[in-house]
Amino acid sequence: MKICIVTEYFPRSENIEIKGGAEVSAYNEAYQLSKNHEVIVLTSREEGVPVEYEIKGVKVICCGRERPYVQKGSFLNRISFMKDALNTGKRLKLDLVVGYNFITHPVAWKISKKLKIPSVARYNDVWIGEWFKNMGISGFAGEILERYNLSRKFNLVVSISDYTKKNLEKYFNSQKIAVIPPIVDFLPVKSEKFSKTTISCVARLVEYKKVDDLIRAVKIIKNDIPDLQCKIVGTGPMEKKLKNLSRELDLEDTIEFCGFVEKHENVLKIINSSHIFCLPSIVEGFGIVIVESMGCGVPFVAAEIPPVMEASNEKGGLFFQPENWKDLAEKLKYILNNHDVYENLQKEGLSHSKKYTGEYVGRELERLYKKLID
To answer: Which pTM value belongs to this model?
Structure first.
């Protein structure tokens, strides 16, 4: 098969510079499918990146204006990317086209109509009715676009979880929705534990990730664990506000903002070297980073939301009441202060993480895509 993947962002090298869950899925699945098929990726053009390049056998074509990574806004640059990706895709010879987020779903659909080939929407999460809450006024365009996307007649929508599938069924034919989890397939890097008791967190610094709840929980735990430190990996519009909160709570020496860590391997090193991982987010499509923490043998504490509970199968960590930083603090302390509990969570997390291998997910995607073409 000749498969086109349309994704807003994609790594620029084998260092795997990845910024979010949709990009992780796009990269892992492009690489896995490229082992048996020809894969072409249409993505944004970031600064210093050539218009065309190849990474691990995957051909990448950069479209639109040169632009930095953004999560919201940047309307003109996003429109430029969408137009150029559409025009580029129309000129390719393809068997199938797949879009990976709300910006790329309409591009994939329009390419499929022009080339008369099947179209697929890979779906992480449904935000209809939640755009304003999650993104503020800029969510208006997202609300309209997502509703438009789900009114298109995609040949198939591939959801990453049963939770997302249930939400999709409100807007799309359930007979054309399949569930295949994302690939979380890596060799955990070996690294020594940090000398101080360390909590790590990997998240975009946006409001719905609720990193402020983790900071407030750290303030509580610090009284019982004086050598505590917290490493926060990620960037975003909330960064200044979160740093100010750390300063207000006298945690400047306790909390380290690591910013964007370019190599995914180095992100895994931070998780692996930590004693516990935390994901306080109240909005997730799946929770890939939770599976990564389990694969590193690091117990987690996460907000009790359905997609993350599904991803972990409620193994490898504990859940706290969303937006309740006092409950979060109690769960973190409980794991850190109970050696037997800690070891048990390590073992069951490692075992569960092996269910997301590239071979399994790639095989299932390949089966579905071949059925669409035949």
So the answer is: 0.79
